[in-house]
Automatic annotation (TrEMBL):
GO MF annotation, one: DNA binding
SUPFAM superfamilies xrefs: C-terminal effector domain of the bipartite response regulators (SSF46894), Pheromone-binding domain of LuxR-like quorum-sensing transcription factors (SSF75516)
Protein known as: HTH luxR-type domain-containing protein
PROSITE patterns: HTH_LUXR_1, HTH_LUXR_2
Organism: Pandoraea oxalativorans
């Protein structure tokens, strides 16, 4: 099918969680599925730590965007999924952590003894679906799912026709999340980077190594690495590339 890339401008142009959630709500019509879901995939230790810090372990569907979880799944299913602890046993999540390829729910439903989670989901209006594992450039993971009340047999034609569009949408939505994060982090750090940290990031953005930057700035390679690591820490970045992207997004540097 022909992809209309202009439909993603609203996603990439969102400047707040609320604006991004509004764009997310529109995607169900675009993708012709009944309900959508997006969430970061956290390692088990991080999930447990986050749950421990929350006073209320059950998050309402309305409160999820603040944690970068976006959904149009039925609220009753959101509550049921959390209360049953399905995140620890969901076969879709297990598969998402093993491969970046699209996951078709029907592959699990065709098993001799499908996991009970699928019967429970069907009872809540989610009969079949497609999930896209997202492996980000900075090592982050996420998942994007599109579900329908129809059975796998009834939705087979829709699945074949739309899986590519779902995949593309997942990537664009994840990028919109990353942009929002970088803008937020960088905006908090504007003015907090030292001149040397900004210079080091600028030359790193231009493709220079720490050794080359040292020659340009007339400082040691070790000192350049020190400045870049400081900039990464202040920007909340996990690597040099993410720090550069965050600095560019708010105008700290213009390579």
């Amino acid at each position: 099918m022909h992809h209309n890339l202009y439909r993603y401008e609203g996603l990439l142009g969102a400047r707040s969680v609320e604006a991004l959630d509004a764009e997310f709500q529109k995607l169900t019509q675009t993708l012709e599925y009944d309900a959508l879901f997006y969430a970061p995939l956290l390692p088990r230790r991080e999930r447990e730590a986050a749950a421990f810090q929350m006073e209320d372990r059950i998050i309402s569907a309305q409160g999820m965007p603040s944690r970068h979880i976006f959904t149009t799944f039925p609220p009753a299913w959101i509550e049921r999924y959390q209360s049953a602890g399905y995140a620890e046993v969901d076969p879709v999540l297990v598969a998402a952590n093993l491969s970046p390829l699209p996951i078709l729910w029907r592959t699990f439903l065709m098993q001799k003894r499908p996991h009970p989670i699928f019967a429970d989901a069907r009872a809540h209006g989610l009969g079949s679906g497609v999930s896209i594992p997202i492996y980000g450039a900075a090592g982050e993971r996420a998942i994007f799912s599109a579900a329908t009340a129809k059975s796998p047999e009834e939705s087979a034609e829709l699945e074949v026709r739309m899986v590519g569009e779902i995949y593309l949408t997942a990537l664009y939505f994840h990028q919109a999340i990353q942009q929002l994060d970088m803008q937020w982090v960088a905006s908090r750090c504007t003015g907090k980077l030292s001149p040397r940290e900004i210079e080091s990031l600028l030359w790193a953005a231009r493709g220079k190594t720490a050794w080359e930057i040292g020659l340009i700035l007339k400082i040691s390679e070790h000192t350049v690495t020190f400045h870049i690591n400081n900039a990464k820490r202040k920007l909340g970045a996990v690597n040099r590339h993410q720090a550069i992207a965050a600095a560019i997004s708010t105008g700290l540097i213009s390579p």
